[in-house]
Amino acid sequence: MDTPExxxxxxxxxxxxLNLFRGVSPSMGPGRIFGGQxxxxxxxAAYETVEDRVCHSLHC
Length: 60
Prior knowledge:
- By secondary structure, the chain is α+β, with helices and mostly antiparallel strands.
- The protein has a single domain (7-49), classed as Thiol Ester Dehydrase, Chain A (Roll), CATH 3.10.129.
- Helices cover 33% and strands 15% of the residues.
- It has 2 helices and 2 strands; from the N terminus they run H-E-E-H.
- A hairpin with a 2-residue loop joins strand 1 (13-17) and strand 2 (20-23).
- The termini are far apart.
- The model has no long low-confidence stretch (mean pLDDT 86).
């Protein structure tokens, strides 16, 4: 994946295996990623691995 340019691209995930995903992050500094992006990508990955479930609450 290349460097993302928009929010949907930033949150997009590439499925590598059944329960394994890879995402990208904009270059915002050496080795750093915004925590909200990690949480959003985690929730999106969860939705790809279960059916008929809805997240009602997410705690960090």
